[in-house]
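Thread amino acids onto this structure.
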């Protein structure tokens, strides 16, 4: 029963984090989805990056767009900058690990594209470098963060958007990031393929 109690505590904490986050940023999630959908409609692409669990989330989000989420529709242009091991290791070896996303962004990003930057702490140096590269290119950033937003929140420009999870525990932030990304996928699909 002691272990079941821990499971119940995890579920309760996850639900609480999601409800708090919805209350704080629900409209901003809609705003981010509308901007992402409009960029895709106009021929832009979404470039996604993050480390560790956030790297997995980046790949998850890109896959939902390129393949499909819950409705049949054409694939949408998204690239996870976390997946090409030859590119990642060559950049890390020749330059620095801090540049693994920024260098790809400079090669692949164009004005009209979007960067989805994911970090639970908001302090990941390579994600911050990607945001700086995006700003140089005129690429808008949507930042998924947690806690106090970290350095990412400080680095955002006026046109950028932050979707900050109202939690401090990494697990709760990651769980809520996944929910936010599913919301974004659903709203993008609705905006592009189901609008009246």
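Threaded sequence (196 positions):
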């Amino acid at each position: 029963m002691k272990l079941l109690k821990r499971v119940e505590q995890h579920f309760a904490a996850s639900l609480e984090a999601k409800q708090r986050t919805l209350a704080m940023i629900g409209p901003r999630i809609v705003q981010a989805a509308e901007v992402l959908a409009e960029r895709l409609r106009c021929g832009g692409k979404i470039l996604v990056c993050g480390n560790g669990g956030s790297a997995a989330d980046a790949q998850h989000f890109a896959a939902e767009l390129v393949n499909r989420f819950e409705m049949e529709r054409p694939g949408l242009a998204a690239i996870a900058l976390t997946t090409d091991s030859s590119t990642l290791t060559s950049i890390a070896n020749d330059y620095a690990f801090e540049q693994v996303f920024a260098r790809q962004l400079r090669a692949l990003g164009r004005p009209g594209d979007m960067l989805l930057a994911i970090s639970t702490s908001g302090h990941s140096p390579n994600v911050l470098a990607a945001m700086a590269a995006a700003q140089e290119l005129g690429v808008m950033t949507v930042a998924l963060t947690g806690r106090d937003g970290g350095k990412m929140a400080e680095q955002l420009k006026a046109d950028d958007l932050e979707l900050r999870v109202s939690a401090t525990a990494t697990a709760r932030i990651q769980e809520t990031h996944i929910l936010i990304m599913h919301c974004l996928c659903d709203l993008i699909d609705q905006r592009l393929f189901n609008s009246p």
